[in-house]
């Protein structure tokens, strides 16, 4: 027994020393330049976007970016701005692309039960980003051009149905083994991910339970190995190493942000199931939950989202109302209810619920945008204009804000401001001739308004740059 304990302690000590060593050793390998990595990252992003659909529901996108950004604050040297995407695909995978792009498949998110599990997976991908593992491997594999390289990387990391379409040519196929992550890369990313998860107030043990769930997926359905296990090798060793680290782990006090992200996770998880997966499957899931708990606000909200996808607006409204009654301060539920009212042409009801949401969350741009649109539909143009103007000072600004602002100013007879905002809209779309037309018209109607004339002149100068 004593020998067994000593052996175990020795294993833990050696594992810890190995991990510390990897943290301290400076990499002597050549890296791709940041400029080349940015170019590659853009090509990679375009390859993925051409083969997969991204989730675009505002509160879903907001959550994954809030979580990723919170974890990313632990990175000592942030080489690139971090951007996070949810791919609408019932597949178990996640990967970091060049230049700070991080992609998580909705199937993997659905398999996670807690924010800590998801945070551990995202933190692992951030480990690849901060260590620049891909940059190192690409530097050693400069055999093809950037565009082809982007497609090959996308095929390796995404796997699944798009892999064959993304890999082009025998040369590209021949270097796949050189570009994939090694077990050493995975160990290094796990060590960094452990550090980022712990420093952010989450439980690093989430990686062990997450890997167990990912491995268990192999034995369900088709029995195929989840793509995550193919692109992230050495899962059993990774779990053992993480468990060794956890032996001496002292949990940090929960941070306020970690508490908030944990509290928002059930809503995020519900949105992923309802909006990213098969409608019939999602419907069965939420009806099953309602059988177990007829008062479940998340089950009613999820079913409402699915019914909205199918166009059953009255039925979705009923479920949103129940969800809001159970969770009266939920901004996402208020947004969904307001949008459903608006789709149904019930603009007064939409304005009522959105004003309540704005009282609770005065800087919520999604609520403001939806409220302005409802006011616009009721021809309350002056009120709508005030909200759209406020939105132009809250970046990033959606292109359609300028379009709608142009319309509501036009309805009020403010033609200088109307054409100016339409000019901005077409500038954003890079439609130079249309933008120039509206800016010139704006100058005609600006009259004796020096501030507006100055803004128009500045916009025209910007237009000349492309």
Model description:
The chain has 2 domains: 239 residues, no CATH class; 88 residues. The protein starts with a helix and ends with a helix. The protein is mostly helical and 466 residues long. The chain is built from 26 helices and 3 strands. The chain is globular and about 70 Å long. Strand 2 and strand 3 form a beta hairpin. 70% of the residues lie in helices and 3% in strands. Helix 1 packs across helix 14, helix 3 crosses helix 5 and helix 18 packs antiparallel against helix 19. The protein has a 3-stranded mixed β-sheet.
- Summarize model confidence as the mean pLDDT: 85
Largest sheet: 3 strands, mixed
* Helix-strand makeup class: mainly alpha
Please report the distance between the alpha carbons of the first and last residues: 75 Å
Uncertain segments of ≥5 residues (pLDDT<50)? 1-30, 168-173
Beta-strand content bin: under 5%
Please count the beta strands (DSSP E, at least 2 residues each): 3
Based on CA inertia axes, which overall geometry fits? globular
| Helix fraction bin | over 70%
Tally of helical segments: 26
